[in-house]
Amino acid sequence: YTIAVVEDITEAKEAQEALIKAEKLAVTGRLAASLAHEINNPLQAVIGCLGLAQESLAEGEEIARYLNVGLEELRRAADVVTRLREVQKVSEPGEKKPVDLRTLLEKATTLTRQRCEERDVQASLQCPDRLPSVSADEGRLQQVFLNLILNAVDAMDEGGELLIVAKETKDPAGASIEFTDTGAGIDQEVMQKLFDPFVTTKEQGLGLGLYVSRNIVEDYGGRIEAQSLPGRGTTFGVWLPC
Length: 242
What we know:
Layout: H1 10-58, H2 64-88, E1 97-99, H3 101-111, H4 113-118, E2 121-126, E3 134-136, H5 138-154, E4 160-170, E5 173-181, H6 188-191, H7 209-219, E6 223-229, E7 233-241
Parallel strand pairs: 2-4
Antiparallel strand pairs: 1-3, 4-5, 5-7, 6-7
């Protein structure tokens, strides 16, 4: 006789997908206030340009230069909205394609630039021109990178530096990305359960960001680790196979 044991993982998969989508909403919410400010700046510039154009038109002067500047500012605002929509885009589970890590990291740093400025954080990206592509879903990897950047920024109450270093690995073949901040660091007791669900050092937040990020990275055969010294900062390392 042959006995087959079949485990129904559908419910577990659906629960994981729900957590990923919930955390994606949380990331969008964390970005929203900063991006609203980034949208407001070009809109105010457009209002100013249109006012000047109106005055110049009444006086019979050339208005093309004001319209051109206003148009560029509107394009800048539209680009911010597009980037926010990309963050919120829902992808089908298991959807994979080659992802350019350099481009994705540049997008993530651009999206969080305003937040860094608000917190007086100097963020820098060190990445070679050619970095191997990884097979993954771009939206989900971006969610991981945004989480790690925003967590690092929030850890620096009095400003600081965030260094993101990406490089190719040969053995095993893949790419590593490290996010190092100069924040307060994480207590060793918290470090032991850092990637567990509902663990957070913040007054607000569900504590799902790192748990979801680990699940996403491991789904693609990668790993995520953390090292921290209280008072000296924290480094999160992500490795992905190529």
